[in-house]
Amino acid sequence: MSAPASYFDAFISAHGSYFIYPEESPDPYTPVTDFGTMDGLLEAYWLNHPVNECRTARVAEVLADFRTLQFYISSAPSEPQNAEDTYTEGWEILRQCVLDGHHILECAADMRVPIAEGGDLEQTKAELRHVLLDAYSRRHEGQKIYLRQGAAQRWVRFREAILQGQQPHLSVQEQLQACDAQLQEELSSVTDEAVYAELASSDHGIGRWTVEDPSLQTVQAWLRERPRLQGGFQVWRGTSQGHGFLWQQPTPKTNPPPGTE
Fold first, then answer.
1. Model pTM score
2. How many structural domains is the chain composed of?
3. What residues pair up with 246 in beta bridges, in sequence order?
């Protein structure tokens, strides 16, 4: 499944300090906080240089894809109508996807832009490559979340069709187990390698400029630097063969007995 088609007005940028480092900024590494539209992003880097124009357009394309993914991720259901289904496997995955989508939207950008030699054009080139990695990595993770959400939503529909408004019972147990197995099979197919290849194929198919797209290894390194801490849980990012995030309950903190401190 490819990323949903870009829908520019569907999801107003929820990350106001996203990606832009124009020359008029007091600090060259302080992002602008209000660019409003994709035109603002383009104008921030639009120099009279054809390759930098390609780089600028590429960043805008990837950012638009990510914003569209965020719209779909945030629109997906996360709580069932029947409270008894709350802790079933598919609904737990859907809630996790909402958290993961929020994290990949809000995690900090890397402000360590390298200083390039060779004048303004080379500096702009270095910054655009840096910004592209940020946008590309977020889009990659967003696509993984979107695919996992899709698998979980299919599980919900299949399960509802099996139960037809009834509680789980022995006569449908085998069908429910097959439904669970199908979910796990779909989740196991959402690997970094598969998602990266799918997005690259989609980009090539619509004629996008991809000459300087970051490698999968670079994207994975960017994502590994941004694990999520949420609600007392440490979330460790899985390997490329995993399904995304894995929850790990920390060891409860206990106070020492009186007199032993």
1. 0.71
2. 1
3. 236
